[in-house]
From TrEMBL:
UniProt keywords, alphabetically: DNA-binding, Repressor, Transcription, Transcription regulation
InterPro entries named in the record: Carb_Metab_HTH_regulators (IPR050313), DeoR-like_C (IPR014036), DeoR_HTH (IPR001034), NagB/RpiA_transferase-like (IPR037171), Tscrpt_reg_HTH_DeoR_CS (IPR018356), WH-like_DNA-bd_sf (IPR036388), WH_DNA-bd_sf (IPR036390)
Name of this protein: Lactose phosphotransferase system repressor
Pfam families tied to this protein: DeoRC, HTH_DeoR
Domain of life: Bacteria
SMART domains attached to this UniProt entry: DeoRC, HTH_DEOR
Origin species: Leifsonia sp. NPDC080035
Protein purpose: Repressor of the lactose catabolism operon. Galactose-6-phosphate is the inducer.
SUPFAM superfamilies hit by this protein: NagB/RpiA/CoA transferase-like (SSF100950), Winged helix' DNA-binding domain (SSF46785)
Every HTH deoR-type domain range: 3-58
Keyword Transcription part of the UniProt annotation: yes
Amino acid sequence: MYATERQGLIERLLVDEGRVAVVDLSERFGVTTETVRRDLDALEQAGALRRVHGGAVALERASTAEFSVLERSGLRADTKQRIAARALDVLGDAFTGSLYFDAGTTTGAVAELLPSRLSEIRGDAEVVTHSLTLAPALAGADRVALTVVGGRIRGVTAAAVGAATVRSIQSLRPDVVFVGANGLSAGFGLSTPDPEEAAVKEAIVRAARRVVVVADASKFGEESLVSFASLDTLDLLVTDRAPEGELADALADAGVEVWAA
């Protein structure tokens, strides 16, 4: 394959996924990592992407950039389903207790699979969420009692935000929370572009007895505008590929367990 062909495919991957990793591209194209880095350097010089540690991101993925929930719903759908199924293993063989679902498409995938998993293990769950997109998947489901936290709805994520939302979450103590993030890095922890969204996510993490982060590998090394949780506040990361390098070391030092789906 010629360099121009590879670079064209890399640009298409960036449109679809927002981020590419050197190691992944090397395996996909059957070339050395040095060749991939030269491709990425050429594309950056052409103004087609921005280089980051371990790969590259689309130019629009700045610290405040954020896709809407509708735009994200079709991205990496199979990956999110695998992560969701693995994440529900945290319930064990006979769960009865309380769960909180953060807003997001990966947490949404977990919520969609919850009723069938509860039926399998004959469990019951008191579920709370502030997401208008997650609630329909759980409303009326067998073995699920649903509470929706109110507030001002942020259109991009279809989730409640604001002081009232944060106060409501602060009054809770769920057994397990499933939380998502736009970025996950060694030094900055979990992050998201919007300050109000970050305040809600921080309250969720602080309220939880156990924090389960569900995030695919495209979030590794990313740092959005606002950090809402340090790595040492997390218990479990469920992802599609085990982190490597600095992030892997930081997660291990923080005592975060990692499950790869």
